[in-house]
Amino acid sequence: MPEEKVLLTAEGVKNLKAELDELLETRRPDVLEKLQRVKERADTADSAEYEEVQNEQVIVESRIAELERMLKDAEVVAMEKARATEVKFGYKVIVQNEAGDKIKYAIVGSPESNPSEGKISNESPVGKALLGKRPGDEVQIEAPKGTIKLKIVSIAKK
After folding, report:
1. Each residue of 47-97: pLDDT tens digit?
2. What is the Cα–Cα distance from 110 to 122, expressed in whole angstroms?
3. Using CA atoms, how far apart are residues 15 and 27, in angstroms rounded to an integer?
4. CA spacing 20 to 30 A to 86: which of 21, 48, 56, 114?
5. For domain 92-156, which CATH number applies: 1.20.1740.10, 3.40.50.300, 3.10.50.30, 3.40.50.261?
6. 62 phi and psi, to 5 degrees?
C-alpha cells in the first residue's frame, strides 16, 4: 500500500530537514556515547540509568524514522503567483471572532502545525472550514465548547 503524501510548505520542509540533521549529527551520536559510557560503568542488567538512555535512543531513532518518512512522502505545495483571493494551503489568513478579536493563522500541513504559533493544520476543523473561503466570508466550526464563528478579514500568501 503506497504511503499517503504529506502536504508541507517549503518552510516546513526546511524545518523538518533541519530537525533531522540535528538528530543525525548531534543527538544520535550523543545518545550512543552516553549508552557506551553507561555500559562501561555499570551492570546494565538492572541499571535504571541504562534503561533511561535506551529509552532516549528509541525516541531519537523513532523521530529520525518519522522525519525521513515524512520528507520522502512530502508534497511541497507551491504558492501561486496571482493575488490571494481565497484561503489556500500555505496562506496566512486574518479572521475576526465574535468578540471582535483578530486572529492570524497560517494554513500548514499536520507535521508543521503549532497552534501556539498560529500555524494550524489544513486537516483541523478550523483549517478545513477556512480553505476556499474569501475575505468577508463567515465560517462556523463545531467545537466541544460550542459553535465558533469566524469572519475572514484578509488573506496573504506569506
Report:
1. 788 888 899 999 999 999 999 998 998 888 766 655 668 898 888 999 999
2. 7
3. 16
4. 114
5. 3.10.50.30
6. -65, -40
List all residues 6 or more positions away from 16 whose beta carbon is below 8 Å from its beta carbon. Answer: 8, 67, 70, 71, 74, 111
Q: Is residue 46 over pLDDT 90?
A: no
Torsion-angle region of residue 70: left (phi > 0), alpha (psi -120 to 50) or beta?
alpha
- 149 residue type, one letter: K
The predicted structure's pLDDT at residue 42: 64
Verdict on whether the full-model pTM lies above 0.85? no
